[in-house]
Amino acid sequence: MTAGGPRRPRSTARDIERYAALFAERTKVMKSSAMRDLMALTERDDVISLAGGLPDTSTFPPDSYAALMGSVAAESCARALQYGPTEGLTLVKRCIIDVMAAEGMSVDADELLVTTGGQQVIDLVCKTLVDPGDVVVTEAPTYPGAVPTFCAYQADVVQVRMDRDGMRVDELETLLDALHREGRRPKFIYTVPNFHNPAGVTLSLERRRELVRIAGERELLILEDNPYGLLRYEGSPLPTLHSLDDEFVIYASTFSKILSPGVRLGWTTAPAPILAKMNIGKQASDLCSSSISQYFVSAYFDSGPWEDYVRSLIEIYRRRRDVMFDSLAECFPREAEWTHPEGGLFIWATLPDYIDTTDLLARALEEHVAFVPGRAAFVDGRGGSSMRLNFSGVDEDEIREGIRRIGEVVREQVALYGTLTGARVPTGSKPTVPAPRPAERRPSEPEPDAELAKILQLPAKRTQAR
Amino acid sequence: MTRVAVLKGGRSLERQVSLKSGARVEDALERLGHDVVPLDVDSDLVDRLGAAGAEVAFVSLHGRDGEDGTIQELLEVMGIPYTGSGVSACIRTADKVLAKHAMRDASIPTPDFYAFNETAFRELGAAQALPAIEERLQFPIVVKPAGQGSALGIKFARTPADVPAALVAAFSYDRKVLLERYVPGRDLAISIIDEGDEPRALPIVEAVPEEEEFYDFEARYEIGRTRFVCPAELEADVAARASELALQVYRLLGCSGFARVDLMLEREAGGLFVLEGNTVPGLTETSLLPQAADAAGVGFDELIARILSSAGG
């Protein structure tokens, strides 16, 4: 017997049938997947995981952490251990106002709702706006973590393709027209404009203006998810959608990438009536976000310039990104393509369409390396030959070794396919004449639309009038 | 009271399922009054197993290592009796190609197939033979890795153009793959447990996918995606034939303790075809063996007790 005596009996198969009858309709579309089981294997110690979306928290000084927690204990113990207001503590809202100002936005404390991570904003927006069958528009690919949320609310997710400038707003308009003819009005458009997860691309300024114009004209809401905006490694910052329009934009961000995902603190600002409903929704979900975390964040912001730590992260991530670019150029076969993110945490690579990256992951795990198969970022089975690669969570040596191993199994499969189809495919370790790569291009160069279109599995030609 | 080591987890792609199976087995064994030592199988298995002082090992590992004879061989060396089939039966069953050859040689119906390892394509030009294979098997053709226990890596090629990518996918899981004739029809699973020295076929479970075109890995383990009917609604003679076939396969492959045999009942023609056997079928809440046992009036604890009592060395 284990300590504590026998456990209560678990259910038998017949019991499960009984419970199944009690499950809500929405559980039927809650997708779990083979991928989930595979992903569980990526967490093994002996696997180099480029699959996570983890920021690097290892450089945060333990002494600072101890001192901050010590000051919370000394100065605010009882309050930190207490419930707080649903909308969040004023002292943490001051930090949020600082962070938003750094991205060119100005908000008042009463326009903010502190949430349990940015993820809760997605949930609360759905809770507030989405009835079963309602249309939600997202980019294709979209943030894989948002898909289960949309599914849980039984949204009808419609995905709009992207290219190097982010969401194709011309296609968005065509889609909205088509939906309009069917008498359907999307509840909101979900977008990650900066350093998209997973695609790595950034929505251009022109398209930002277009997007808010479309939303304004059609009175549609945009959910702007901006967790990575401050992690820019090159180029100039672009205005957020929220700073271009605050009438139809719900803005979401988080402390996860600039301080710590462990504090589980994010926030949103939205048109007042929507914010009020989200507040009620949050009350029902968790009453309030952790007071301890809010006091910790507040103490951290009081302790010195928070931007210094972000700058140190930018230095680390920029180097890791560049190492990943170099490794990809060296180790991936010429048939592969990848995006060139100017910031954020992810590169999106696309292989020839005969390679299924879910199966490839099984093979890669044999070599103790992992990535996220692209299909996770689509609701319709697309993305099968793409993968998301994270460069923030592992060190430079591991990135080199991880990409080398993935490159090897990709080459193996490319060569095998060549053998099977009779095509002559180079199997050497490095192409003698390297193909031009997105990694080597700069915005000033002519836009290789056709290649980039392949990367995101998108149209070969941009037709949008600029 | 017996000291039982429950071997679970491991490195296979079915690790998660195995952990779920193992947890249920541990609970049942505790309720039965045994002293349970849970072991998540890793590189230090031999040391930990030695230190555990277990009198018997309950193998709750699916897929590679757990079903292919590897763990069983180790347990033989260590002299620890274990549940389920022995080394040779595991090797024969886990390798679908070996199992299908054995069935074909014994005139047990199994869908037509051709199997190759990677070197046949790389070095012997086997790709040149693909048109002839496609001609004989007819589309759609099922392409699968020889040794993967779950539905991972199983692809359906509808046209010749689909075949190379399907092969590349299957080779992601194994060095050997098979191309098999697709049998459209009903998906039947027959679980078998030993009663004394005689294997007994439990009521047949039919898996009816709710939405997916093909029964896939995701549906297999999750509630709500596949409807299971047990006992399957079959004509008495069909059910009897299916059960008899499953028992023949069980004996042919040399299984012991318990196992599951998967068959297809061909639509229209009504032929029965054996797809494969599984020497360590799942024991999760949604697994087929516990459902079948339940339908036969054998509760989960009793099922586990019977499997344990059949453990041999």
Structural class of chain A: alpha/beta
Q: Tell the overall outline of chain A.
A: globular
**DSSP strand content of chain A:** 5-15%
Q: Please, what is the average pLDDT of chain B?
A: 90
- Biggest beta sheet attributes of chain B: 6 strands, antiparallel
| Main sheet makeup of chain A | 8 strands, mixed
Describe the structure.
The complex is a heterodimer of chains A (466) and B (313). Chain A is α/β, with parallel strands linked by helices. In chain A, 42% of the residues lie in helices and 12% in strands. Chain A is built from 15 helices and 14 strands. In chain A, the strands form 3 sheets. An 8-stranded mixed β-sheet of chain A has the order 2-9-8-7-6-3-4-5, sandwiched between helices. In chain A, helix 9 links the parallel strand 7 and strand 8. In chain A, helix 4 crosses helix 11 and helix 5 packs across helix 10. The N and C termini of chain A lie far apart (72 Å). The relative contact order of chain A is 0.15. The N terminus and C terminus of chain A are likely disordered. Chain B has 313 residues and is an alpha+beta fold. In chain B, the strands form 3 sheets. In chain B, strands 8, 9, 10, 11, 12 and 13 form a 6-stranded antiparallel β-sheet that branches. Chain B has a 4-stranded antiparallel β-sheet with strand order 4-7-5-6. A 3-stranded parallel β-sheet of chain B has the order 2-1-3, with helices on both faces. In chain B, strand 12 and strand 13 form a beta hairpin. In chain B, helix 4 packs across helix 5. The longest helix of chain B is centred in the C-terminal third of the chain and has 18 residues. The radius of gyration of chain B is 19 Å and the shape is globular. In chain B, 53% of the residues are buried. About 4% of the residues of chain B have low confidence. Classes of the chains: A alpha/beta (466), B alpha+beta (313). The interface between A and B is large, with 42 and 49 residues.
